[in-house]
Write a structure and sequence with these properties.
This protein is of the alpha/beta class. Helix content is 26%, strand content 20%. The protein contains 6 helices and 7 strands. It has helices at 11-20, 30-33, 38-44, 54-63, 85-94, 172-178, and strands at 49-53, 75-79, 99-106, 110-117, 132-133, 138-142, 156-160. The strands form 2 sheets. The protein has a 5-stranded mixed sheet with strand order 1-2-3-4-5. The relative contact order is 0.12. Mean pLDDT is 84; it is low at 1-10.
Amino acid sequence: SLLASLWGAQAIGATMTTLVAGATLLPFPVADYGVAGLEAWLRDEGITVYVSAASLFRTFMGSLADGAAFPAVRIVKASSDPATSEDFAAFRRHFPNAGLFSSMGATEIGSVAGILLERDSPVAAGRLPVGRGFPGLSLHVVDPSGRDVPAGETGTLVVRSAALFSRYWRDEALTAARFVDLPDGT
C-alpha cells in the first residue's frame, strides 16, 4: 500500500501520484488520532511510502522511542516546508530500508524540485537540499523587480511551465499576488 499522512499544499499532488501509479491511497486522520496514532497506523496498514509535511514528520520523529523502526517503508517524502539535517538523522534512525525524498513546491504548482537521499548520502548541517527542477519547468530566482539574481543570492522563486494554472478562479486579488508578468513579458 502507498501513502501515509497528507498535509498541506502537497496533498493533491500526492493523491494524483498515488492513483496514477495504481497504488492504494491511505490518508492518515491526524486530526482524529494525533501524531501518537501514526506509529501503529504505519505498521498496521503496511505503509510503504510515507508522505508528510516536514514539520509533521519532525513532530512524529520526536514522539518515537529510540528503537522504533519501520522496515516496510521504502520511501519517505518530506515536503510542504523545509526538511533539515536533524530530520535526516531521525529518518536514518527509524527507517532502515528507505530513501528520503526531499522536495519543494507550492499549492499553485505542486512539487517543482526534488532529490532522493539514500541513507548513506552525505548531508550538510541545516536545511536539506531539494534537488533540481523537474522536467518541463523553468525555474528562476528573481529580485523584487522580477530580474534574475546571481547564483547564490536570495530572491523569489518563479516557475514557468505550460502546465501551470494562469489564475485563481474568481479571485483577482490573489491572482495578482501569485501570478506575475516578468520584465521579459512572460
